[in-house]
Design a protein that fits this description.
Distance between the termini: 42 Å
CATH topology: Porin
Structural class: mainly beta
Radius of gyration: 19 Å
Mean pLDDT: 84
CATH architecture: Beta Barrel
InterPro entries: UCP029691 (IPR016934)
Protein name: Porin family protein
Number of helices: 2
Shape: globular
Number of strands: 12
Organism: Pseudomonas mandelii
Low-confidence stretches: 37-49
CATH superfamily: monomeric porin ompg
Largest sheet: 12 strands, antiparallel, barrel
Length: about 260
Amino acid sequence: MQNPTRLFASFVRSLPAAQGRRLRRNLLFVSLTLSLIAVLSIISKANAAGGAYTVDDAGINAPGECNIDAWYQNGRHGSSSSVVSQDCTLKGLPNVQLGAAVQHDRDDGDSETRLSPQFKAQIFSREDLGLELALAGSTHFAFNRAHAFDGVDLNLPFTYQPFETLRLNLNAGWTHAYDDGEQNHRWAWGTGVEYDLARSLTLIAERYGQQGGEQAWQAGPRLHVGERIDVDLVVGRNLTGERDQWLTTGATLRF
């Protein structure tokens, strides 16, 4: 039987040079992220979270709990995004989750960093019916622009859980963005499904878009490493324009 390390090395060498570089960068990001989380996990307990997925669920952290999400997305044509996000629910505000995300994008030699304060407030929750409804919003600020304000998003996430292993998510929202100096207002929507195939594995798929704007899908497995760490491996594709494809790797920590 061949050594698994040699088999993997042979597989990487067989890929086109660009794909091989993207795979190595994603694996390096996962390794560094898991190393950091392994240290923090001694005092933490992790569950599923939104992570790199665009379609949100209506759940929030329990009072006094926080989560950290980190992911790296590598596009087919050399673009990339790195994101670190943290959200917490304070004991004094048990129905509101507050947080912020920092995102760094690179494309064709240009780069941009954004800070996005965000919130999610639970409006309705009936565990016996498997129904949850929330209001979520975020504001975006660009660090390296003369015009720092970059836009705002509002969203109504709705989650229905007909079975213990199945969750259906529906999003309806509105986005205001500055695109190359032009202000755009668009309605946004998204649908997602999460299925717990096993105790350590959840399969996730989503389809989302904006009125007159981006249309895309993403899907992949979410690996539950014990009860403390979740790891996402996500593939996605834009359904408009050049139909770009991407690979995303990420991890979630809750404490």
